[in-house]
Amino acid sequence: MTDTSTSPGVDGGDALVTAFNAVGADYLFCSSGSEWAPVWESLARRHRDGLPCPRYLDLTHETVAVGMATGYGLVSRRPQGVLLHAAPGLLQGSMAVHGALLAGVPMVVSSSESTTYGDGPGQDPGGQWYRNLSVVGGPHGVAGPFTKWSTEAASVHTLPTMVTRAAELAWRSPAGPAYLNVPLEILLEEWDGREAKPVVPPGSTHSSPEEVDPVARMIRDARNPVVVTETAGRETDGFEALLAFAEAWDIPVVEPDSAVCGNFPRTHPLHAGSDIGPWMDEADLLLLVNCRAPFYPPSRRPSKARVVVIDEVPQRPHIVYQVLFADAYLEGNVANSLRQLTKRAKDLDEAAVAVRRAAQDERHAAEQAAVAEAEKQAEARRQTEGVDPVLVAATLRELLDGAHGIVVDETITHSRVVRRHLHTAEADSYFYVQGGLGQGIAVALGVKLAARERPVVLTIGDGAFAYNPVVASYDASRAYELPLLIVVFNNRVYKSMNLNHRRFYPDGAAAETGEWLGTDLHRLPRLAQFAEPFGMHTETVDTAQALGAALERALRAVEAGTTAVVDVLVTR
User: Could you tell me the pTM of the whole model?
Assistant: First the structure.
């Protein structure tokens, strides 16, 4: 028999809210589902009674919920709560959950199922679970491949501790999303009110002096060392520690195209660009600092360099195939390892240091000259239809100078241009969206939520823009007062797909006939228009002469509190 009546009191919904409050979640990012009525009732009761609880964000798409949690976690580095709907909602948000795994963002994701399907005692869960929503094995089985840890809460009495465990696992290296299936019957079950245990921040493991000393000797003996890093800036104090290390030893730093955040000031004389290629034959020591996948193809081994891997978890369990060619590991907290090595930067061979410093000065001057030349050429093409993407990035750099802006990047063919010409130079000033296109607006909104005092710019291609849940993202921006500057690099084509077709079949039928399938976006309307129903500032730019003024107006609108979308027709 089922009972459809409801009664006020303490139940599993309150247990879940209590647990998220105890673990220190600032927010519950929720894409609504019928299982969350007990949570909503608990929140309403707490709001009425003045009791503490995480702030609830009512979001209208799963990708927006997870993406905002990702963006918030990129800056805060603390686990938040994400509530999705059953297995279908989990599947809808799965790309973004996988992106959080790749980006190393801690979060606890929950959704539900039914365990009685209306045939058990207590309140009726509803026929939708029996007919439509359930999956064999439960949603925790679905979540396993794209989360760090996935399981089911089997009792209301263990639910709070399960949330604590999920948060602690999500927070520890390698950080990432944990999933907890909380059946609806458990959310509706009476709870005894026992307190959930707060989450303790992760302790740190350190490499011992006996492990650090040999690496310091390797660096001291090297004539041409180089640092390669993808995610050092994701670690707490990692950006600052890497800067101090590189300066102490006078070692260049390469951020390859696979870098997912800002790790080192791009304006610094020791920044050695994004191409690891020249170092594969020239370097005698490669220091891979939080570098998951430095070599491509993976079998491309350095010709003479020894390889030292500095990473708390060098062998990432979620990477299917990972090749590092390591000769030595320094495991443990990355910032601490770098600080220990910095202290050992003594008795250097000044002649060898002078040689590599001169070589890096030459490389840096050549890169600066190349950037300046590219921008000069972009300026020279001002009279053509469309805008050179180099000019878009350079203009943004000038307008953001001194503003401590944050750039979230969801471009593909223009990503190198964005990184090279925007010149982000602060910690937490650049993030590249991970795991698949279609999350950029949500991730940028989450970043803005964590850094309201800083301007946040999303650079995005027209193809990626089309993948985003735009309506739900704009709704969240307006509802929670999270103004962004969205700059669309619109070349009206899936350029990356087209380039691959041309690369694989240079003399094929498509090249002969001009029939390039799967790439044309000319049929889309101009993309700024989608923001107009939300009362946002919009600009459509087709000429270089109009670019600067349009971006200035857009930034002023953002400063005034509204999202601004600038759709720029680019030439390539």
Answer: 0.95
